[in-house]
UniProtKB/TrEMBL annotation:
Binding site for FAD: K53, G116, M316, F317, T318, H319
Domain of life: Bacteria
Keywords for this protein: FAD, Flavoprotein, NAD, Nucleotide-binding, Oxidoreductase, Pyruvate
Signal peptide: none
Family: Belongs to the class-I pyridine nucleotide-disulfide oxidoreductase family.
Active site: residue positions: H442 (proton acceptor)
Domain (Pyridine nucleotide-disulphide oxidoreductase dimerisation): residue spans on this chain: 344-449
Protein name per the record: Pyruvate/2-oxoglutarate dehydrogenase complex, dihydrolipoamide dehydrogenase (E3) component
Residue span, FAD/NAD(P)-binding domain: 7-322
Residues given in the record as NAD(+) binding sites: G181, G182, G183, Y184, I185, G186, M187, E188, E204, G269
Cofactor(s) this protein requires: FAD
Protein species of origin: Rhizobium lusitanum
Amino acid sequence: MNSVDKFDILIFGGGKAGKTLAMDQAKAGKKVAVVEAGLIGGSCINIACIPSKTLIRSAEVAHSMKGISEFGITADNVRSSLDLVRDRTARVVAEMVATNQAGFDASGFDLVLGWGKFIAPKTIQVETASGTRTVSGEQVFINLGTTADVPDLPGLAGAAPITHVEALQLGDLPTKLIVIGGGYIGMELGQAFRRLGSEVAILERGPRLAPREDIDVSEGILKILGGEGIEVALSAYDLSVSGRSGESVTVRSADGRVFEGSHILVASGRRPRTAGIGLELAGVEVDDRGFIKVDDHLRTTADGVWAMGEVAGTPMFTHASLDDYRVVKSTMAGGNRTTKGRMIPYCVFIDPEFARIGMNEAEALKEGIEYRVAKLPMDVVPRARTLSQRKGFMKALVAVDSDEILGFSMLGVNAGEVMSVVQMAMLGGLPFTTLRDGIFAHPTITEGLNMLFANVSASAVVRKAA
C-alpha cells in the first residue's frame, strides 16, 4: 500500500450533502478531504437539476414565442437553435461550478479528483491524474449518488441510447425523440424537446403517468402533454429495440405497437453508485437494490461510516440530500435529528409545474385516514388568467376531526412556489383557516389559496377510510 494521507473527515463523493459537510467541517478547523470523480459541485449542478432546468427554460421561451400573438405581439422568423441552447446551458453550469470551486478553496478542504474505491476500512485509493493516492479518515461519509439505469431490453444496448446527460449536450435537434420511461425526467425532457421542435413519443410501461399521484393529476398531465403534440404510449412493456440512436431507431412493444425515431432517451430509473467500489472491504452493507443500508441517523453497518443522499436511499432530490447533511451534522454534535417523519416536498418541472407536499388522496385512503378535500381549477385564479396560464388545479386535504392540513397538490403555473407557502403552514402546525383568511397580494397565484381553502369549510367532500 502507498503511504496513507490521514484526515479527520473523509468524504467519498461531492454531492450536495458531501460538499456542504466538507466546507462546514473544514471551516470549523477539521482536516477534511473530498474524493470526487470530477463533477465539481456534484451531479445536480453539472448534469442534472441545473442544466436540465436551464434547457427547460429555453424551451418555455420557445413555446411562448409560438403563442405570442395571443398577447398582441407579432414576431417573424422565430426559430430555435439547439446548439445555442446547449451553449447557454453550458455557461450557466460553468458559472455555478466556478462558484462552488471558490467556496471549496475558501473553506480549505483537500479536493482529491479521481476514481476511488475502498481498499480497507475507512481507507480509499484514488486514481488521480498525477498517480495513485491513498487517503483515510477517522470519520467517513459516502455521498456518491446515483446514475441512469439502462434497462436490459433486447437491442437497447446496441442502439447506444442517450441518457439525460447526453441529452443536455446535443448540438443537433432530434427529428423524433423516443423516450423510454414516463417519470419526472422523461416528462420534463420530452416536453422540452417537443417545444424546441422535435417530435416526441414517451413510452411508459405503466397504465398511467405519475403513478404515485392521484388519478386526476395523471390525467391532467397526460392532457397537457398530449395537447402539445407529444405521443404518450401507456402500458408499453416488453420493449425491443433495433437501429442506432442518432441515426434511426425502431422500438416495438409486446402488444405490437411500433415507434420509429431518430434518437432514444432512456429515463426509466436510477441505480446507486455502489458497485465495484470495495464496500465489502469497508464493512458497509447494501440492500438488494444496491443502496447502502443506514439507520435513522444515516449510520452504515461500519463503525464511523455514514452514507448520505441518493446512495443511502434518500429521496432523489437535492433538497433531501441537503437535509441529510443536517441529520449527520446533528449526530456528530450529539444531537438527535433523524430522517424519520421528514416532510419532503417535490416539484416536477413540466409546464405548468406539478408540486406536492404531504399526503395525496391515495396515500390517505391507504393509511385509513379520513379527510376533507377541496379542489380549485387554476382557471378561476385571476393571475393565471392575466398570464394566460389557466391549465391545472390546486387540491388540499384537511383532517376531518381538526383543521390540520394533511397535504397539498398543485398542477399549475408557479406550483413549486405556492406549494412552499402551504409547506410553511404545515411545518408551523397552522390550521387551514390561516391560509383561507390570510391576506395575500393581488393578483398573485398564491392568492388562489384563499379560494381553495374557503372551499374546505363550505363544500369539501369527506373521504372515509375503507
